[in-house]
Design goal:
Elements: H1 2-7, E1 10-15, E2 21-33, E3 36-44, E4 54-55, E5 64-69, E6 74-79
Antiparallel strand pairs: 1-2, 2-3, 3-4, 5-6
């Protein structure tokens, strides 16, 4: 399955917080947020160094205002008008 996913993705590199580059594999994924369903580009990488190995926010920040409430461990998605 992993080889299939690698063959059907776009390989790219992104800069992370310390300035280094890591390899990511970009996939188009259908998501549903706030009762809206759409396709987004999501990057996956084994080199991210955190639990989920998912990076990216293309197509999400342009559609939603996002509020992070660290103390409550909640994320709010608010649909932008227009």
């Amino acid at each position: 399955m992993e080889n299939y996913l690698l063959k059907h993705s776009q390989e790219s590199y992104v800069t992370v917080g310390d300035g280094s580059l890591i390899k990511v594999y970009i996939h188009d994924v259908r998501v549903r947020i706030a009762d809206k369903e759409f396709e987004v580009a999501v990057g996956f990488s084994r080199h991210l160094g955190i639990g989920f190995n998912v990076i990216g926010r293309l197509n999400i920040f342009e559609r939603f205002t996002i509020c992070f409430d660290e103390s409550e461990k909640r994320i709010g998605f608010f649909l932008k008008s227009g």
